[in-house]
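Help wanted!
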Amino acid sequence: MKIVTIDTLPFDDQNPGTSGLRKKTEVFQNPTYVENFITAIFKASGRLKGGILVLGGDGRYYNDVVIQKILKMAIAFEIRRVIVGQNGILSTPCASHLIRTRQAEGGIILSASHNPAGPDKDFGIKYNTKNGGPATEDVTGAIYNQSKNISFFSFADVDDFDISKEHTIEAGSTTIEVLDTTKIYADLMESLFDFSMMKTKIKEQNLKIRFDAMNAVTGGYAREIFVNRLGLDESSLLNCVTLSDFGGLHPDPNPTNTHELISVMKNDSSISFGSASDGDGDRNMIVGGKSAVVPSDSLAILCANSQYLNGLKVEGVARSMPTSGAVDRVAKELNMNCYETPTGWKFFGSLLDAGKITLCGEESYGTGSNHVREKDGLWTILAWLSILTARNMSVDEIVEEHWAKYGRDYFLRNDYNVSSEQGANIYNSLASATKSLKGTSVDNVKILDAYVFNYEDPINGNKADNQGVILDLENESRLVYRLSGTGTVGATLRVYVSAYDKNDTTSPVPSKLNAVSILGAKLAKLQELANKDKPDLSVF
Ligand code: VG1
Ligand code: CO
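Answered by r_m:
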């Protein structure tokens, strides 16, 4: 077998963000762009040579081409075994599971997750390490360094491999194992939940559900779980065929993007449980008859109802810093530790590995448990289904019961799309204003505390500075500012707004949070510095 080595020059923009390297697809299509980055990954994770690599993606445009490139490069790099999803399909949580169960050195997931797909949309490459979780900052830093110093890459000069069927291929010193991962993932879910009880109760309770895969990676897994194993009707599935452009959908599951699901739920009151997942299957959205469950609440509700999760023993919980404090209230009541981490699943890994937490979540429609080291969309949906069937209650009833007991943490996120310069300017101005803001009142609202969130991992001591600006306001209201690390054009300033009310739990979110929202924009000088008089997107 001929190994070809090609000279290359570094690209200066291969620095992974919150969750992998994401760019416009056309950037990845630049000659040698993919090869450079893959070489950087291979070199930064020393033990891949002779080790096992898990490989797959969410099925988006360019997935097929990049998979073939990586397979040929893996042979040249003498990776011992590459476990690749059939047709290149592999969800992020399933990749995490495979890395763990097959003792792989790492995994490459081709996905820009919740970003849209297509030749003029986005593509991405994520790297996960041995524990199954997203590469931590030290590893992504090493990858970036390698990418800046690269001078050549190598690949095996062979025809494309047939990855359309389950089989094993020997190539050089590499074994390529093509796997249909649907069964593996469904088996994992079946080991975590009591499917036979759920199946019986779904029938007894005549439960009707809708699940929207948004034409992305979870369609096949969902059919196997919901229809084949839990006996739900085929009509439960929406957009469950994986398409390379996701059928034009924006697979970021929130009420704005899931029109079809929301309208189906509105038009048929007999369907009491709706859900959706994102491009690569790690996010989830839970919808009741009245509205979508706020992800921060979803995490708190899972924690408060963990006795209905088939014996899952919750030792502790964690939430990302912008996520509301709803789960903190439950943790306090249950007398368990609650950790606050920076945004991004990579920061939960050490806590999960050390057994300090069992559940964790983010406001961005991500929740998961210690069964893998990624957030897991279908797991969360099954967790809700497990609670709903065990308690014979609807989503709305569960949410209302929760608020009645704990009060409500009203939450919304305002996104402002600005230029990179404007984003940096707004964020840096806020960060440097924290000292002068602390203790002052603006528009009659007292700013009790103002600080930059610097994190030190409680398990390994790793530091991650400057992860956001936090303003704690009176009456348990809070503003958090940070710049998105997953966008591909300009910058997105995220302003997270929350307010707590023990008694009033039924106000509309926008009106309840209006005053704090306006204050948030004013303090960031959004009008002055970016000419923005309203957010480009509000998610709640
Ligand atoms: C966003 C979310 C963050 C999530 C990340 C990856 O990051 O805010 O909570 O972990 O996406 O999710 P950012 O930096 O744009 O705010 V996924 O499902 O797109 O891998
Ligand atoms: Co995702």
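OP: Thanks! One thing I noticed: Residues 92, 113-114, 278-280, 282-283 surround cobalt (II) ion (ligand 2) (CB under 6 Å).
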